[in-house]
Design a protein that fits this description.
With about 120 residues, the protein is mainly α. It is built from five helices and two strands; from the N terminus they run ααββααα. Strands 1-2 form a two-stranded antiparallel sheet. Strand 1 and strand 2 form a beta hairpin. Helix 4 packs across helix 5.
Length: about 120
């Protein structure tokens, strides 16, 4: 498939897809006329990249993990594992902070609902 179809299937802009390729996050083949060509595996790769980016990972961090996914060897696997563990710890910390913020918000919602119920009764 060409870049336009990959864009339509993933929701990523063509510009983003070119950026992913420039950063080494996505690798395409080229047609004889030089157009980028992708297959169904690229749809899954773009979804993975998008989820990592949405979770706050930088493209540089993602790129450190990509060689292990595409061309595994012992050194790459070790380096990628270190990066993956660091990112997992960062995400776990962020999840904990978000859960605490949600709990505080839930409490404020309850206080507000009680106030509104008491004012309505008066």
């Amino acid at each position: 498939m060409r870049i336009g179809e990959l864009s339509a299937r993933t929701g990523a802009s063509r510009r983003s897809l070119r950026y992913y390729e420039q950063q080494g996050l996505l690798v395409s083949t080229r047609s004889p006329s030089g157009q980028r060509c992708y297959d169904d595996d690229h749809v899954q790769r773009v979804a993975l990249v998008q989820s990592f980016l949405a979770a706050g990972m930088s493209s540089r961090t993602i790129a450190q993990m990509v060689p292990c996914m595409t061309e595994p060897n012992m050194d790459r696997a070790r380096e990628a594992l270190t990066t993956m563990n660091q990112e997992r710890n960062r995400l776990s910390s962020a999840i904990g902070s978000m859960a605490a913020a949600r709990a505080a918000l839930d409490h404020l919602i309850e206080v507000n609902l009680n106030f509104l119920a008491n004012v309505a009764d008066d």
